[in-house]
Design brief:
CATH topology of the largest domain: Rossmann fold
Helix content: 40-55%
Structural class: alpha/beta
Order of helices and strands: EEEHHHHEHEHEHEHEEHE
Pfam families: HAD_2 (PF13419)
Family: Belongs to the HAD-like hydrolase superfamily. CbbY/CbbZ/Gph/YieH family.
Radius of gyration: 17 Å
Shape: globular
GO cellular component, one term: cytosol
Strand order of the largest sheet: 6-5-2-7-8-9
Distance between the termini: 14 Å
CATH architecture of the largest domain: 3-Layer(aba) Sandwich
Number of helices: 9
CATH superfamily of the largest domain: HAD superfamily/HAD-like
CATH class of the largest domain: Alpha Beta
Strand content: 5-15%
Largest sheet: 6 strands, parallel
Number of domains: 2
Protein name: Phosphoglycolate phosphatase
Cofactor: Mg(2+)
Mean pLDDT: 95
Low-confidence stretches: none
Length: about 230
């Protein structure tokens, strides 16, 4: 059982299945640039470290895998980013929560836990998505990828949330879906619990690196994995 005061939750791949809409926007961007479309599953493997990394990897997708993170031409990247943001703004709110998310958030809130959403997604996409999906009401705080100078895997977002909620980092848990979340939680000193269905660049989560794995969010309460630290 984890005794905590606050639970922080990743957005894409943990609360919301956003990959279909992201892949659609990416392929519209690529079409505008006269580049071939990418399979949705390939785009999904590039999700998790923010929009800039996603776009860079998609632009470099025809290169050797070791060069996915190479810096593309600056002018091309700027054009691609503008195109992607324009297309994604049109469908971002179409994404839906995973099964068990709303029930799980309700159960956590009913236990008296402080809840926060922490994501690498830009705020201009995060807030409308949370509102449209009905998840915004559950969170005392939302920290997006551009809210602070750095984002996950840097621990600054988690540390900022804990400070604002007046809890120690060791009194908080992060629920995520990727190595990015695991690295951030370890660096911040938080508990880390992961779901198996999200976006971890096509790799399974290494169970030895996390405190627990859950099938969906409701298990935190239904399996008595969490209690409120008074």
């Amino acid at each position: 059982m984890f005794r905590v005061k606050a639970v922080m939750l990743d957005l894409d791949g943990t609360l919301i299945n956003s990959a279909p809409e992201i892949a659609s926007a990416i392929n519209l961007m690529l079409a505008d640039l006269n580049r071939p479309a990418l399979p949705a599953k390939q785009v999904e493997r590039y999700i998790g470290e923010g929009a800039a990394v996603l776009i860079k990897r998609c632009l470099n997708s025809q290169l050797d895998v070791s060069r996915l993170n190479d810096e593309p031409d600056a002018a091309l990247f700027a054009q691609a980013e503008k195109l992607f943001f324009a297309h994604y703004a049109n469908n971002v709110t179409d994404s839906k929560p995973y099964d068990g998310v709303i029930e799980g958030l309700q159960a956590l809130r009913d236990k008296g836990l402080k809840l926060a959403c922490v994501t690498n997604k830009p705020e201009k996409f995060t807030l409308p998505l949370l509102q449209k999906s009905g998840l915004a009401e559950f969170f005392e705080m939302v920290v997006s990828g551009d809210s602070l100078p750095k984002k996950k895997p840097d621990p600054i977002q988690l540390q900022h949330i804990c400070a604002k909620l007046d809890v120690h980092t060791f009194e908080a848990m992060l629920v995520g879906d990727s190595e990015t979340d695991i690295t951030a939680a370890h660096a911040a000193g938080c508990f880390i619990v992961t779901v198996p269905y999200g976006y971890n660049q096509g790799r399974p989560i290494d169970e030895s690196t996390v405190d627990a794995m859950i099938e969906d969010l409701t298990e935190l309460v239904s399996q008595d994995l969490i209690t409120v630290l008074l």
